[in-house]
Amino acid sequence: MQKRFFSYVLPAMLAFAFTGLYTIVDGFFVGQNIGDVGLAGINIAFPIVALIQAVGCGIGMGGAIQISVNKGRGSKDLEDKTFGNTLTLLLLAAVIMSLFVYVLNYHILVLLGAEGKVLITASKYLSVIALGSIFQLFACGFTPLLRNYDQSILAMAAMICGFVTNIILDWLFVSVLKWGVGGAAWATIIGQIMTVIPCLGFLFKRCRSISIAGFKLSKNVVKNIIRIGLSPFGLTMSPYLVMILINKWAVLYGGETAVAAYAVISYVTSIIFLLLQGVSDGSQPLISLCLGSGNIQEALQIRKLAYVFSLIIALLTGAGILLLSHFIPVLFGASEAVAAMTEKSLPIFVSGFLFVAFCRVTTSYFYATQKNTSAYIMVYGEPILLAILLTAVLPNLLKLQGVWLSAVTAQFILAIIGLILIMREKKLQL
Questions:
Q1: Could you report the per-residue pLDDT of 158-217, keeping only the tens digit for each?
Q2: Which of the chain's ends, N or C, has fewer CB atoms near its CB within 10 Å?
Q3: What pLDDT, on a 0 to 100 scale, did the predictor assign at position 80?
Q4: How many CB atoms within 10 Å of residue 259?
């Protein structure tokens, strides 16, 4: 079982890590060539980019879970219908999101708290991203489908292909041609195109076995995809809802310096969160197959492996970040003031890694086994708890330090809630 577990989880971890590295690479080149304003601009804009990715992930994962359950049950016709409907939904969502972001990006950024030079910079970045958002959505939506068809290696290779392209083009567009944040955005879009291309061969081959009627949207199939997909959508989007909230209060209590410091912190912590999500989502196809075939005990064993592996990753990466905390801000070209604030604040965020590890696996288990109410509580609990803590408690007492502590406190409370839900489920099984 362990061999099969790692054959799914390790490629998923790498695929998620490369997804997160897109933004870090943008941040590195923008920070080195533009400075704090560029870093702050991309950080303010990134929740919108994350929304595009979350929609793709939600639809793709919602469809993929249904596909795995139907495979476990031997329901070939329903499996094919779900696959076709998932692709149709991804296409419709891509068109809608492209238009939405392109037309409204400036107004959305104002609502997110952007102003002055940061607003101008963020708008330039997001305007370009909107033009290619269809590829971002496809890249995020295709990979769960590939993993659930035993194509984890292909999904990982596609991400690596896009990531390498992004690095090369970031260097060319930002450092050499001096296109600024727009160049970073173009590098990201072209990188996502290169992620989609390797996936197309398998998807076209799979489509040939499905009739045209399989792509016509079915009310029940779409309902199930969306019902399940709301959890992975939220799990992908939740860190960026947190980012929006922290950015708003960081501006209030620490100004541009605090926003730039949080940009550096979020670049680093987002990679760790994505690695942890790779563990949880990598184990999802196995858990869903076990559910479909009625093998609950094996699903619980897979969950146990995911818990142990996630906690080990959280401990090791946290220790690594603390050891390198002095060098991390320099990597992004941060000013002395931003670097000092980043180094001082990083340990607060690292202290929440263990809670995040537990919550990620717990949430993924709930939506993989179609326990949607518990999954919704875990997914949307963190931003709700954080909003309460930020508006009513810690910043009023501790100012900027309270803003940082609110994030970790919300993660701790959510881990307690997750533990209660797991214990409740165990009692019901007995």
A1: 888 988 898 999 999 998 998 988 998 999 899 989 989 988 888 888 777 777 777 888
A2: C
A3: 82
A4: 25
Q: Report d(CA 189, CA 220) in Å as an integer.
A: 34
Contact 259, 251 (CB under 8 A): yes
How deeply is 327 buried, as exposed, middle or buried, from its count of CB atoms within 10 A (0-12, 13-18, 19+)? exposed
The residue ranges of every structural domain in the chain are: 2-429
Dist. CA 430–CA 428, nearest whole Å: 5
Higher pLDDT, 306 or 395: 306
| Sign, Cα dihedral of 189, 192, 194, 200 | negative
How many whole angstroms separate alpha carbon 129 and alpha carbon 101? 9
Q: What is the pLDDT of residues 418-427, one digit of tens each?
A: 999 998 877 6
Report DSSP letters for 275-344, one per residue: HHHHHHHHHHHHHHHHHHHT-HHHHHHHHHHHHHHHHHHHHHHHHHHHHTTTTHHHHTT--HHHHHHHHH
Helix axes 219-293, 133-148, angle to 10 degrees: 40
Q: pTM for this structure?
A: 0.79
pLDDT at 209: 74
Average pLDDT over residues 333-359: 90
Query: What does the alpha-carbon distance between residue 189 and residue 21 come to, in Å, rounded to a whole number?
Result: 14
